[in-house]
Specification:
The complex is a heterodimer of chains A (about 230) and B (about 220). By secondary structure, chain A is an alpha/beta fold. Chain A has one domain: Glutaconate Coenzyme A-transferase, CATH 3.40.1080.10. Chain A has 6 helices and 11 strands. Chain A has helices at about 10, 35-40, 60-65, 80-90, 100-110, 175-180, and strands at about 20-25, 45-50, 70-75, 95, 115-120, 135, 140-145, 150-160, 165, 180-195, 210-215. In chain A, strands 1, 2, 3, 4, 8, 9, 10 and 11 form an 8-stranded mixed β-sheet that branches. A 3-stranded antiparallel β-sheet of chain A has the order 5-7-6. Chain A starts with 7 loop residues before the first helix and ends in a 19-residue tail after the last strand. Chain B is an alpha/beta fold and about 220 residues long. Chain B has a single domain, classed as 3-Layer(aba) Sandwich (Glutaconate Coenzyme A-transferase). Helix content of chain B is about 15%, strand content about 30%. In chain B, strand 12 (about 185-190), helix 4 (about 195-200) and strand 13 (about 205-215) form a beta-alpha-beta unit. Classes of the chains: A alpha/beta (about 230), B alpha/beta (about 220). Chains A and B meet through helix 4, helix 5 and helix 6 of A and helix 2 and helix 3 of B.
């Protein structure tokens, strides 16, 4: 078995216009830089994206937005992207903001064969409008449905040709859960290792979830917020 | 001492040994600077980390190691990393002893609004709705009024809500307010202020505690 493909361009070549695409990352941390670049080069349009954020102007998913390839987006926070804010206010992009924990759990459910589940999050707010609620014990919960995608584009630290993956520090974030919830999961890794080199006890994403592996190159990894609180603690 | 520093110093005094705490972006992050001596507290960052340490020096910053504000942080011994789904499972599952976050509006019922201004601001709620629904204690840390003197502590919030009946305490540079079933109980006022001074700058009706105290801001070291 060898899931490694020659390049990011080859890996994304069969993603079609109008596809639903999940993209891993939190801010600019742990994003699939090479797959995003390849997707922009591919020229597909009308994508429905699912990702916690929308990059920043000029980097990450911001490049996809600037290329005009995104028709709708589901995420939890997009405050770093001014173009997106402008497009939404003008009504040119269909944006759905949902709580970050609901986003994560809806994707988890999507990958785990659970169609819907109840959470306390957002009860009595606009995000619960029109949704079924149910009293269980002494609390009322909101029914949330699973999220799946045609394709997940994720980023890992190291992986092998079987698709086993490990991540580095907070660059893990949404990547492992998104790996589970798409019909096609493409992982880009910083380093490709031989099967057996990753300690089986430490593997975060077992290869079953991964269809293609690409070795990424030339990572820029910009730090989004350079400046820290006075006093030096964060 | 700035108003924000006064707020951070006061809330830091509420942290108990062994607490797991999530600090929101901005002002709440400052609380980490004033943790009392001898207290072991573990800070959680909802992007997937427990044991968040202080900011690194500029050249030691690691782009794979950031907090929820997307700022570089460091690892403390015993820290751990996990995915976003697990991060919010621990938040929603009631494993956070305290969540401190900012607000645009809070009201007499403990409702909170901090994520959107319709037609003006498109940012998103991030993890705030999950945090207020799941943490054992939710403290709002904010400046008492808007920059142009507008009210933020209202009878009823007018902005879209982040959560209903979720706030336990409101801490501003002027006072400490506890949310009770009867309404907002003013328990502490900043040094030099009276309860009347605080009420004069607050639209919501404040119930004045019989044991009203001065807000302490010294760091317990």
């Amino acid at each position: 078995m060898n899931k490694v493909v020659a390049s990011a361009d080859v890996a994304v070549a069969d993603i079609v216009s109008g596809a639903t695409v999940m993209l891993g990352g939190f801010g600019l941390c742990g994003i699939p830089e090479n797959l995003i670049a390849a997707l922009v080069r591919s020229g597909v349009t009308g994508l429905h994206t699912i990702s916690n954020n929308m990059g920043v102007d000029g980097f990450g998913m911001g490049l996809m937005l600037e290329a005009g390839m995104i028709a709708s987006h589901v995420g939890s926070y997009v405050g770093e992207n001014r173009l997106l804010e402008a497009l939404v206010i003008k009504g040119e992009l269909d944006l759905t903001l949902i709580p970050q924990g609901n986003l994560a759990e809806r994707i988890r459910a999507g990958g785990a064969g659970i169609p819907a589940f109840y959470v306390p999050t957002g009860l009595g707010t606009v995000i619960a409008e029109g949704k079924e609620t149910r009293r269980i014990g002494d609390r009322t919960y909101v029914l949330e449905t699973a999220l799946r995608a045609d394709v997940s584009l994720i980023k890992a630290w190291k992986g092998d040709r079987l698709g086993n993956l490990i991540y580095r520090k907070t660059a893990r974030n949404f990547n492992p859960v998104m790996a589970t919830a798409a019909n096609l999961t493409i992982a880009e890794v910083e380093e490709l290792v031989e099967p057996g080199e990753l300690d089986p006890d430490q593997i975060i994403t077992p290869g079953v979830y991964v269809d293609r592996v690409v070795v990424g190159a030339s990572y820029l990894k910009p730090i989004e917020s350079r400046f820290i609180q006075q006093g030096g603690k964060a | 001492m700035s108003g924000k520093e006064r707020i951070a110093r006061r809330i830091a005094r509420e942290i108990r040994d062994g607490f797991y705490v999530n600090l929101g972006i901005g002002l709440p992050t400052m609380i980490a600077d004033y943790v009392p001596a001898g207290i072991d507290v573990i800070f959680q960052s909802e992007n997937g980390m427990l044991g968040v340490g202080p900011a690194p020096t500029e050249d030691a910053a690691d782009p794979d190691l950031i907090n929820a504000g997307k700022q570089p942080v460091t690892e403390l011994p015993g820290c751990s990393f996990f995915g976003s789904d697990e991060s919010f499972a621990m938040i929603r599952g009631g494993h956070m002893d305290m969540s401190v976050l900012g607000a645009m509006q809070v009201d007499e019922a403990g409702n909170l609004a901090n994520w959107t201004i319709p037609g003006k601001m498109v940012k998103g709620m991030g993890g705030a709705m999950d945090l207020v629904a799941g943490a054992k204690r939710v403290i709002v840390a904010m400046e008492h009024q808007t920059k142009d003197g507008g009210a933020k502590i209202l009878k009823v919030c007018t902005l879209p809500l982040t959560g209903t009946h979720v706030v336990h305490d409101i801490v501003t540079e002027l006072c400490w307010i506890r949310v009770t079933p009867k309404g907002l109980l003013l328990t502490e006022v900043a040094e030099g202020l009276s309860a009347e001074d605080v009420q004069a700058r607050t639209v919501a009706t404040l119930i004045i505690a019989s044991d009203l105290r001065t807000m302490a801001t010294e760091v317990l070291r």
